[in-house]
Amino acid sequence: xxxxxxxxxxxxxxASTWDGEVTDVVSGEDETDRGKNTNTFPFHTDGVxxxxxxxxxxxxxxxxxxTGGETFFTPSxxxxxxxxxxxxxxxxxxxxxxxxxxxxxxxxxxxxxxIGTDEVLRWSSALYLEPDxxxxxxxxxxxxxxxxPALMTRINDSMREHVCYExxxxxxxxxxxxxxxxxxxxxxxxxxxRERHLYRALFSDSEEENTFxxxxx
Length: 217
Ligand SMILES: O=C(O)CCC(=O)C(=O)O
Ligand SMILES: [Fe+2]
Description:
The chain is α+β, with helices and mostly antiparallel strands and 217 residues long. The protein has helices at residues 3-9, 76-86, 89-93, 140-161, and strands at residues 13-14, 23-26, 41-44, 56-63, 71-75, 95-100, 106-110, 112-115, 118-121, 128-131, 165-167, 174-178, 182-186, 197-204.
């Protein structure tokens, strides 16, 4: 099935990744890559280090493992609403996250950023924090820095509390979701003797959005 080709005709552009335009997500034994093993895949945004995270993600199920491997989704807006009740807006605006990808290039982006009409929460378990506390005036600056670990824990807990959908896969299922409005993850794959295999493709609606923008360092 050439989903990618069909979508391109509608004006969507596939984002290229390390594996080309379509990534095989398989229940293998590569401990360094959650897309190639059976571990829990914690909440994340796909393509966190792109200049703008790809707008849409397509997942297509080739085969399932039997048990486990459900894919779950949480609206970022629900998480942000909760977090804003508990943490100061200045603090939230001051946080950048730094990611390192396979080739060890680093990318720095705001944790929360408006892209078009979406308020995007860039989230990945492998995030490094780099708060820009200079915008926060003394005497609150030190306190703000100290609050960040608690904020990160709270965001993660809130993601769990606001799960809106969990998909149990059958071969042939296709999900398309907005990667700028939802964070997602996967439960542990429990039946590794039967291969779980998904195809994953990332799409944006303009070409510039697919570029990488490494940090100057
Ligand atoms: O295995 C899944 O259900 C999701 C995989 C995923 O989120 C990814 O590869 O980015
Ligand atoms: Fe993902």
